[in-house]
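Supplementary Methods, section 5.1.

A reviewer requested that the exact input to the structure prediction be made available. We therefore reproduce it here, unchanged from the version used in the analyses.
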Amino acid sequence: MASREPSSLRTLLPALLGRLAREGAPASALQPVWAALVGPALAAQCRPTALHGGLLVVTTASPLWAGALEAQTPTVLARLAERHPELGISRLEVRVG
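The structure derived from this sequence is encoded token-by-token as follows.
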């Protein structure tokens, strides 16, 4: 059996997320990194619910939180592009539900 060095989650996560996105995995695959992308307050009130090509759909608990997330959309998209370019997310749609 070949010996392999252990890999950190930080090293493995980008490849795993990219594979999940290509295979049509649900947007909930982003949940492990969601708080790092939007911050803990927003992460507690909204969740990724769909991923269609370059569109990430996020559902919030209320219109107030939807507005807060919409105000942060450019920042969230920039963080996604920087930290997880393998996902190819270029648009964010916020829904209340």
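Residues 55 and 96 are 16 Å apart (CA to CA). These observations are discussed further in the main text.
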